[in-house]
Amino acid sequence: MDTLIAASYAIVFSCLTWMAANLRNLTRLNKYLWIFISFGLFILACGGTHLMDVLNLWWPQFGLASAIRIFCAAASVPTAIVFAKVTPSLARNIRSFVEVLATTQEQRDSAQGALTAAQAIVAERRRAASEIAFANEQLHAVMNSTSECILQIDHQWTILYGNREAASTLPDFRLGGNLWKCFPALSSAKAELEIRNAMQNRTEGNLENYYEPNDRWYNIHTFPTRRGISIFSSDITAEKKLEESLCRERLIKELHIEAMSHLAGGLAHEISNPLAIIHARASDLQDLAAAQQVPSAEKVEATCGSIVRTAERAIRVLRGLKGLSRDATSDPMEFFDVRSICRESVDLQSSRFARHHVEMRIHLDSEVPLVLGRDVQIGQIVTNLLNNAFDAIVQSESTERWISMDLGTRESSVYVKVVDSGPGISQTNRNRIMEPFFTTKKPGFGTGVGLSLSRAIANDHGGSLILCDGVTNTTFELLLPISQSPELAALSGEGLNEDQRGIYLGRG
Amino acid sequence: MKINEASILVVDDEPDLVEIFTAWLEGADCKKVMGAGSGKAALAMFELMCVDLLVTDINMPVMDGITLIRALAKADVSMPIIIFVSGQTYNESELRQLGVRTFLSKPVRRTKFLAAIEDALAIRQEQ
Asked: Which domains does chain B have, with CATH numbers?
């Protein structure tokens, strides 16, 4: 039994010693540490007395037992005295300590709650940020996949954003740069006005603009935004070129209509007069035959000769009209003899010119090479130039009445020069003479599309139509490039036989 | 007035037609037939001679038929007039007031042409 008690006391001592060791860092309890030690030593001594009672049964050591008992007594007295003395203070401290512990626990619980809430907010924010990032990524993907250039501009005209298309196709694009400095060519009156309007008035705008640095047409939409404006521009060069092509075709058709309407008045004369002559001559012969009168051989020859000549004249007019009245915009490009075209155009009008006492002075170089193009269209240009020259003369009171036509070769071009003795063109009108629908003619003499479209046709052939400067009389010059085709470059219209002409000119 | 007594002026910018009409008139025994290539040339001829009947085309260079007729009316020269028209716009009542008796169109046969001449000369006789 004593052994068991001794062992228990030893365990109690160990516990007290362990507690003292663990509480020594707590400032408020530091002064009570030695009580644990003193009480521990007292317990240890008590345990020692019980152990000695067991030893004395088999191995009597009364001296040691007495010494241990004395030590036990010595330890018990100061322990009891001091313990009694500090008990109230210790009790207060323990209660305070427990309260602190309780408060700390509450605070810990509260902090834990706040931490949990904060963690939830952070998680929510992370999720929202992730969604924003995803949406942003999607938006960028869409903006970068579109063929439109997208720019975001702030109120100071700084480029805040540009999509991939803008960066790759606009040669002067620079993020953070000034819009007008980056794209000085945009400062055309129309585009700049529209963009500035959108920024100032906070309105949407739309315009088509030619951007010279990369030779493209853009359809520009402007939208007001919180920070400035957004500019969406799509490349419409292909559409514009198609539109221009259609417009040119339409205008060329108008040229045909104008040329036809212009000649319509004269046409009655050019055709009806020869027919009237033929009719009169033939009806005379018919009347003679009906009256059983036989005209002399000379009379018949003279009458029939007149009929044949007049019929040939009408045929020449009709041949010229055939080319003039046809829309040749879809004709294939073929090699043709410009000299023949000039002759046909002159033949078409020669009778009219003669009746109005307008002299034709023609100088056609026989060495002019073939030209690649649409012969009908070139014929239309030459006829138009002759018409204009004729109108200039007949509308004036000038005593000089002549038109000259020269055909020749200069450098790598064939030229057709038409000069008239008319009153000339004033400097003001010279600057506008090639504009569509501009005309110096009297009402009924023309709509003013002839020259502009003649020039368009010449340009289509790689050539040009110019009004010459520094000359006394009005001088128009049509220039057509000489083809570099190896087999044809050396050949001229004069050098071809009839079969070759048929092949190269597309005529029989 | 008979055709062989009349002095007739034919005005047309087509020399062949002047020649044909002149031949027709001469064939009908008209002794005084003259031709002119334009209205301006015809006016000059009126200065030199008396004309009983004018045959003119409407569409001519330099001076057309209508301008010629108006100029004659202004100069107080009156006579029957035959005019060839071919689709142009003209004021028929105005021309009739100015003396146009007959409107003809090309082509025309000799018989119809001479009938119009005789008809117009009959009027001239009445005047």
From this structure: 7-126 (3.40.50.2300)
